[in-house]
Design a protein that fits this description.
mainly alpha; 0% strand; 3 helices
Length: 180
């Protein structure tokens, strides 16, 4: 259908002429494109689809492996946690045993110390008693000697009561000064 405007008809004509003049080239191009697409679909799509399917299967397998790895990691973590708790319980048990052994050893050492202290106390008391006994024996000897001396003087001198008391007083004073 011709255009009512002659300026438009003149402008369309080079474009229309171009298409009309190149229709065989255009048809050959469309034919080549359809042939290319057909060959591509026949030859190239199957390997691409196979590669996509293989990639999808690998990704699916990797996801399953990752899920299994997560499940295995959780299971291993639970096992590790149980082992840690078992080890902590064993450590607590060993610590309690060590404390009991230490308390037992401490009690033995304290009892041994008490026995040694009691032995030292008994020995000291025996030594004190022996020293007291020796002092009493020495005192008795000294008194006996003084008594003999006094008796000798009394016998050698006939004393009256006042001389006798004076002699005893001096002998006791002498004895006190010798033992002081």
């Amino acid at each position: 259908m011709p255009s009512p405007d002659p300026t438009l008809a003149a402008e369309e004509s080079p474009m229309v002429e171009f298409f009309i003049g190149h229709i065989p080239d255009f048809l050959w191009g469309i034919g080549a494109f359809i042939l290319f697409v057909g060959i591509l679909l026949k030859v190239g799509v199957k390997p691409v689809l196979a590669a996509v399917d293989a990639r999808e299967a690998k990704i699916r397998k990797d996801l399953l492996d990752a899920e299994q790895a997560v499940v295995e990691a959780r299971r291993q973590r639970e096992l590790n946690e149980q082992e840690r708790k078992a080890h902590e319980a064993k450590i607590a048990e060993l610590m309690a045993e060590v404390r009991r052994d230490a308390e037992s050893h401490k009690a033995k050492l304290v009892e041994q110390g008490r026995v040694e202290i009691e032995a030292l106390r008994v020995r000291a008391l025996r030594e004190i008693e022996a020293a007291r006994h020796a002092a009493v024996v020495d005192l008795r000897k000294a008194i006996a000697e003084v008594s003999v001396l006094v008796a000798e003087k009394v016998v050698s001198e006939r004393l009256d009561v006042s001389k006798h008391e004076d002699l005893i007083r001096r002998s006791v004073e002498r004895f006190d000064t010798q033992n002081a």
